[in-house]
Write a structure and sequence with these properties.
The complex is a heterodimer of chains A (284) and B (344).
Chain A (H helix, E strand, L loop, with lengths): L1 E8 L9 E8 L4 E5 L6 H8 L7 E6 L2 E2 L7 H4 E4 L11 H9 L9 H7 L15 H11 L7 E5 L7 H16 L3 E6 L2 H7 L2 E6 L2 E6 L1 H8 L3 E8 L2 E8 L3 H13 L2 E6 L4 H9 L5
Parallel strand pairs in A: 3-8, 3-9, 6-7, 7-8
Antiparallel strand pairs in A: 1-2, 1-4, 4-5, 9-10, 11-12, 11-13
Chain B lengths: L1 H13 L3 H19 L9 E8 L2 H13 L2 E5 L3 H10 L3 E9 L2 E7 L6 H17 L22 H15 L1 H16 L1 H6 L5 H28 L5 H23 L5 H16 L1 H6 L6 H4 L3 H10 L7 H29 L3
Parallel strand pairs in B: 1-2, 1-3
Antiparallel strand pairs in B: 3-4
Helix pairs in contact in B: 1-9, 2-6, 2-9, 6-9, 6-10, 6-14, 7-9, 7-10, 7-11, 9-10, 10-15, 14-15
The chains are: A alpha/beta (284), B alpha/beta (344).
Chain lengths: 284, 344
C-alpha cells in the first residue's frame, strides 16, 4: 500500500534535512508504527505521504498513487488523523463531520454513528470550540474514518487522551486492522506501538535506525530471563532465572511444581528499552 | 457540488464571525453619516462678518452691493467683534470697510488657512465689483461648456462610488486573507487538503462569501442613498466584477505568506495605493497617468456611471469585462500558488 524510496525532505530547502534517505514499505493490511521522540521526523514523513508537504526528493507511492503528482481520487482511499486537533470551532461536532463527508466521492460512514463510536454523541450539536482538548482530538480522529479508508494515517492518535479513552481509540484501531485496513501510525508511545503494530520503525533525527516486528525486537534485544517470587515455608523468595541455563530451567520447574509461586514475569525488553539501546536516546 | 458545500460551510462560518458583519456595519454607518450629517447639496454661501464704518449714501450702497453676493452677511459693530466671531466659525471671512480721505478701504480678515488663489479671487472680485458699477461697463466674459447637459450628482451620490469601490469591492482584499489565515491557524486547511476536494473549491468558496457580503453592503448603501435612481442591473454586475477582483488580489497576495501579520504590510500598501485614485475622482484636474492606471480609478467612475439617469453603458460594461478577466487571471495564479503553499 505504501512504498517509500530514498525520501528526503528539508523545510529550509537546503542540506538540513528533517528526514533523510527513508526507505520502507507497508503491505496491505499491515500496521506500521513510526516510533520516535518529538521532532524525529514522524509527522514530516506522514506529511509527504499525504501530500501536505511537497515531495522534494525520492519516490513515494501511496495506495497506488505517485505522490509527486497526486490525484485527488487518492483521498477517497485514505484517511488522515492529525496530532493537532483541527476542526471548525464555530461548527458543531456533527456539522464538522457532515461537511467533510460531502467532500468524498465514495460511500461514507454515518456521522452520528461515528460520534457515538468515540463517545461524542451527547455533544453532537455543541460547538467544537467548546469541546475539551480530548474531545476535539476524538473528533479529529473519527473524521479520518468517514470515508472508510483502505489506508489510514494516524498521527499520535492517543496523545493527550485519558487512559480509558485512549484504550477505546486503540480498540477501534485494532478492529479496523482486523477488517484489513492498512495503518501508518506515528507515535512516541511505546505501549500504543506495542499493542497495535505489526512492525515498528525507530526514527530519530530524520533517519530510520531499525524496522522490525515488536516480537522480533524483544527477542533480539531482551534478556531471556524470568523473575519469580515464591514462598518457601515462611520465607518469601525472589529469583531471576535464565531460560538459557539448564540448571536454572530445572530449578524453575521445581518451583512451578511446588506450587507456591506468588508472582512470575518474563523479562523481555520493552520497546522503549530497545529504542534506547538502539538509538542511545529516549522517546520523550 | 464540492464547491457548493465548501461555499455553504464558509457562509455558515462567516455568519458567525466578526468580519462578515463588519462590512455591513460600515455600510450602515456610512448611510447614517451621509443621510444625517452630510448635506445632500451643501450651501455654497460663506458667512461674512462685516463691520462697515461709512457714512451716508456710501454705507447704503455698500450694504446693498454686499447683499447681492452669494454670502451670508452678518453686520457687527467693530473690528474686534469681527475677529472674535471669526474664531468661532472657521468657515467664515471677515470684512472691514472704512473711509479714508474720500476713499473706501476694503480690508479682508482671513482665517489663515486660505491659499493664495483664494486671496486673489477676493481681491479680483472686489475690484471687478467696482468696475461693473461703472456706467459704460459691458461684460465681455463668455463661458461655454463642452457637455451642456452633463448631469450633476448630489454630494451624497458623488461620495457613494468611493464607498462602493473601497468597501464593497476592496474590503474583500483584507477579509479573504483573514479567512484563509484563520483556517491556517485552526489547521482546518490541512483537513480539507486530505479530501478529494480541490484547492480551487476551497478558494472559490471564500470568494463567494466575500461576494455575498460585498453585494449586501454595496446594495444596502445604494438603496438608502440613491433609491430608485441607480441602475441596479449595472450596479450588481459591476459589484460582482470588482468584488471578485478585490478578492482575487487578496488571494494572490495571501498566497505568498503564511500569517496575517506577514501579509498585512503588503495588503495595507496595496489599499493605500488604490486609494490615491479618490484624489483624482474629486479633483479631475489632477489625474496623472500614474493614477489613471490604478484599477480603482476606472472603478470609481464606472460606479458613478451607474448612478446617473443615463449612464455610460459602454464604460460600465468595459469595466465589468475588464475586472472579470483580471479576476480570472488572478484567481488562476492564486490557485497555482496555493497548490504549493496552502498547507505549508
Amino acid at each position: 500500500m505504501i512504498k517509500v524510496e530514498g525520501l528526503y525532505h528539508s523545510y529550509t530547502k537546503n542540506e538540513k534535512y528533517a528526514v533523510q534517505d527513508l526507505n520502507f514499505e507497508i503491505a496491505k493490511g499491515e500496521v506500521l508504527g513510526f516510533l520516535g521522540p518529538s521532532g524525529a521526523g514522524k509527522s514530516t514523513t506522514q506529511g509527504v505521504m499525504t501530500g501536505l508537504l511537497q515531495l522534494q526528493k525520492g519516490n513515494v507511492t501511496v495506495a497506488g498513487f505517485d505522490v509527486r503528482k497526486i490525484s485527488r481520487t487518492m483521498f477517497n482511499k485514505i484517511g488522515v488523523s492529525f496530532e493537532q486537533s483541527n476542526v471548525y470551532g464555530k461548527l458543531s461536532g456533527l456539522e464538522n463531520l457532515e461537511f467533510y463527508r460531502k467532500l468524498f466521492d465514495v460511500p461514507t460512514e454515518d456521522p452520528k454513528a461515528m460520534l457515538e463510536l468515540v463517545g461524542l454523541d451527547h455533544v453532537a450539536d455543541q460547538k467544537a470550540a467548546e469541546y475539551s482538548k480530548g474531545m476535539k482530538h476524538r473528533l479529529t480522529f473519527v473524521r479520518s474514518m468517514l470515508n472508510k479508508p483502505e489506508l489510514w494515517f494516524l498521527d499520535e492518535p492517543t496523545t493527550g487522551l485519558d487512559p480509558a479513552i485512549a484504550s477505546q481509540i486503540k480498540d477501534i484501531i485494532k478492529k479496523k486492522k482486523e477488517e484489513g485496513t492498512t495503518v501508518f501510525l506515528t507515535t512516541h508511545n511505546m505501549y500504543v506501538a506495542d499493542a497495535l503494530c505489526d512492525r515498528v520503525a525507530f526514527i530519530i533525527d530524520g533517519v530510520i535506525k531499525l524496522i522490525d516486528s515488536p516480537r522480533n525486537l524483544k527477542l533480539q534485544y531482551g534478556e531471556r530471563l524470568v523473575e519469580v517470587e515464591y514462598r518457601e515455608g515462611d520465607c518469601l523468595k525472589k529469583e531471576k532465572l535464565s531460560f538459557l541455563d539448564r540448571k536454572d530451567r530445572s530449578h524453575l520447574t521445581e518451583i512451578v511444581n511446588a506450587g507456591n509461586i506468588e508472582m512470575m514475569h518474563t523479562k523481555e525488553a520493552t520497546l522503549e528499552e530497545i529504542f534506547i539501546k538502539v538509538t542511545g536516546r529516549g522517546l520523550k | 457540488m464540492k464547491l457548493l458545500y465548501s461555499f455553504l460551510k464558509d457562509m455558515k462560518l462567516a455568519s458567525k464571525s466578526f468580519y462578515f458583519y463588519m462590512e455591513l456595519g460600515i455600510a450602515l454607518i456610512f448611510v447614517v453619516v451621509l443621510l444625517f450629517i452630510v448635506p445632500e447639496n451643501p450651501d455654497p454661501k460663506m458667512d461674512v462678518y462685516a463691520y462697515i464704518d461709512l457714512q451716508g449714501p456710501y454705507k447704503t450702497m455698500t450694504e446693498e452691493a454686499l447683499s447681492r453676493e452669494n454670502t451670508d452677511l452678518i453686520m457687527l459693530n467693530s473690528r474686534e467683534e469681527v475677529k472674535a466671531e471669526l474664531k468661532g466659525n472657521r468657515g467664515s471671512v471677515g470684512l472691514v470697510i472704512t473711509q479714508a480721505d474720500d476713499r473706501i478701504v476694503y480690508e479682508y480678515i482671513l482665517q489663515g488657512y486660505e491659499g493664495e488663489k483664494f486671496r486673489n479671487i477676493l481681491k479680483t472680485s472686489t475690484e471687478a465689483g467696482f468696475v461693473s458699477e461703472a456706467a459704460n461697463y459691458r461684460s465681455v466674459t463668455n463661458v461655454i461648456t463642452l457637455e451642456e447637459d452633463t448631469e450633476k450628482l448630489s454630494l451624497r451620490l458623488n461620495i457613494l462610488p468611493v464607498f462602493l469601490a473601497y468597501n464593497a469591492a476592496f474590503m474583500g482584499l483584507f477579509i479573504i486573507a483573514a479567512y484563509i489565515f484563520l483556517d491556517k491557524e485552526e489547521g482546518t486547511i490541512k483537513a480539507f487538503a486530505v479530501t478529494p476536494a480541490r484547492v480551487w473549491h476551497y478558494l472559490l468558496g471564500k470568494v463567494g462569501v466575500i461576494l455575498v457580503s460585498g453585494l449586501m453592503s454595496g446594495l444596502v448603501a445604494t438603496i438608502f442613498l440613491a433609491g430608485l435612481k441607480a441602475n441596479y442591473l449595472h450596479l450588481i454586475l459591476l459589484l460582482i466584477a470588482t468584488n471578485a477582483f478585490g478578492s482575487t488580489v487578496g488571494l494572490f497576495i495571501a498566497s505568498f505568506f503564511n500569517t496575517m501579520v506577514k501579509a498585512m504590510g503588503w495588503l495595507y500598501v496595496i489599499i493605500i495605493i488604490l486609494s490615491f485614485s479618490a484624489v483624482s475622482y474629486y479633483l479631475p484636474a489632477f489625474s496623472p497617468l500614474i493614477i489613471r492606471i490604478l484599477p480603482s480609478y476606472p472603478m470609481l467612475f464606472a460606479f458613478r456611471e451607474t448612478l446617473y439617469d443615463v449612464g455610460n453603458t459602454g464604460y460600465i460594461y468595459t469595466n465589468v469585462l475588464g475586472f472579470s478577466a483580471a479576476s480570472v487571471i488572478l484567481f488562476l495564479l492564486a490557485n497555482y500558488r496555493f497548490k504549493k503553499t496552502l498547507t505549508v
